[in-house]
Design a protein that fits this description.
By secondary structure, the chain is of the alpha/beta class. The chain has 13 helices and 29 strands. The longest helix is centred in the first third of the chain and has 16 residues. Bound molecules: adenosine-5'-triphosphate and magnesium ion.
Amino acid sequence: MSDESKASTSNFIRQIIDDDLASGKHQRIRTRFPPEPNGYLHIGHAKSIVLNFGIAEDYPGTCNLRFDDTNPAKEEEEFVAAIEEDVQWLGYSWGELRFASNYFEQLYDYAVELIEVGKAFVCDLTPDEVREQRGTLTEPGRESPHRNRSVEENLDLFQRMRAGEFADGSRTLRARIDMASPNINLRDPTLYRIRHGLIHHQTGDAWCIYPMYDYTHPISDALEDITHSLCTLEFEDHRPLYDWVLDNISIDCHPRQIEFSRLNLEYTVMSKRKLTQLVQENCVAGWDDPRMPTIAGLRRRGYTPQSIRQFCELIGVTKSEGTVEMGVLENCIRSHLDAIAPRRMAVLEPLRLVITNYPEGRTEVLQADNHPKDASLGTRELMLTREVFIDRADFREQANKKYKRLVLGGEVRLRNAYVVRCDEAVKDADGNILELRCSYDPETLGQNPVGRKVRGVIHWVSATLGHKAEVRLYDRLFRSANPGRSDDFHSELNPDSLKVVHECVVEPVLNQAQVGERFQFEREGYFCLDNRDSTPERPVFNRIVSLRDSWGRVEAG
Ligand code: ATP
Ligand code: MG
């Protein structure tokens, strides 16, 4: 295929595929994304999704969504539905939707084949005994006393395992490979174990024996005619077993397993076990908490699917391990939103400003551009009234010239409106500033005053026509860049990862904001309505990302 038709950048896996197409080994490419439905998808999974579905999109090919559901103890229907939603939200459609459990009958038959040719046996050792006899990197393992059972006895016992005659942990089916192999994965690995009393979300109580991942995965791939089975580096040592399984059963298809490095992201954890812990221990408000690195969390936070896909393209696919800075992900959403987000004004910490020479009761409708660089986003109406709110941080009684905002006796422009001068700061008995009394220059709409220098431009919202809103400001979930090395990672949580600002005021048109719309609140960052907690009476805005990268600065401070 020509380079121009490829939407994505190449990588070592795409080069292998190019070669396989050029040599005629394959005419069509088939990949799969194989999540275990034991949690929500995270940004690491997005890397695998963009790789697998991206290949299917760019080559003549398809990508299946296959649930690796061989461990019913930890899996749930809720996760199946969430994973489907997340893949679709990222903008992909699967060739076929499959479950590894669809193949339980075939997997059983292939196990019988292995027994028949003397390549698998029923072992009566307990899981602990198996582990203990497995050996180490420097010592070979010991052969099971049941390794040389006759084919007939093995067939009988395996059939009775399936029929439910034996208790959990009392027997397993094991491959008969090599207890002295330098690769521990080849030391007679377990293929099936007994699990009674579980209700599988797909197969109910039909089975009491369940196949292991290393046995299930290659056969599932082969049954789906997958050409390239892409997985993360920890499976490199399992590849000989993947190949052994397919070489020893009567199946023609033999997919090629290729490993790539996992995505690690600073200041967060990525393993589903740890993410589950955060949810179950209420460290966050659920799987879709906007601080979570889950796809559902990023969606609720306001990330666009395009920005996540762009991030995955940017980090690329290699075999080298590393940790990506959070700033890389944030830059992707920031640059996307800079291009597409309409501008609005919102005051997070309101300070009343009274324009004393502005007529009481007058409302002036001003037109403002929605975007400074994209006229196609149109304009909106701003309502100027005698009393407005500005941000408390935009006023100081005194400041040096570097302070480009309002000072006593100084002038600033109210964004898209007039220049105002601060004449007086009204205070309470304790010296707290209650309101500012200012005067405006009617000649300064759309033009600069003559002969005076205005310090800067600040944002504002009409005090009478603006809407109250809650704003949620998010920071990193963890204080340390690489948390979760130990199981007690609670002490590494950032106690200030969520700051709720209750009494914000937003400009009138934000009244019509819809879930899914994203805005730049000028000088504050990018925001969207929270899809869970926002109501028409009480809008809640999430800060998606700040206007500038603050990670380095926070680090130094
Ligand atoms: P976890 O340790 O979070 O449970 P997992 O690898 O067990 O991750 P699966 O549901 O089995 O999770 O993963 C589905 C696919 O996504 C696999 O092919 C896996 O290799 C890939 N994947 C998971 N995490 C990452 C990651 N951080 N970076 C890249 N790919 C990942
Ligand atoms: Mg897993």
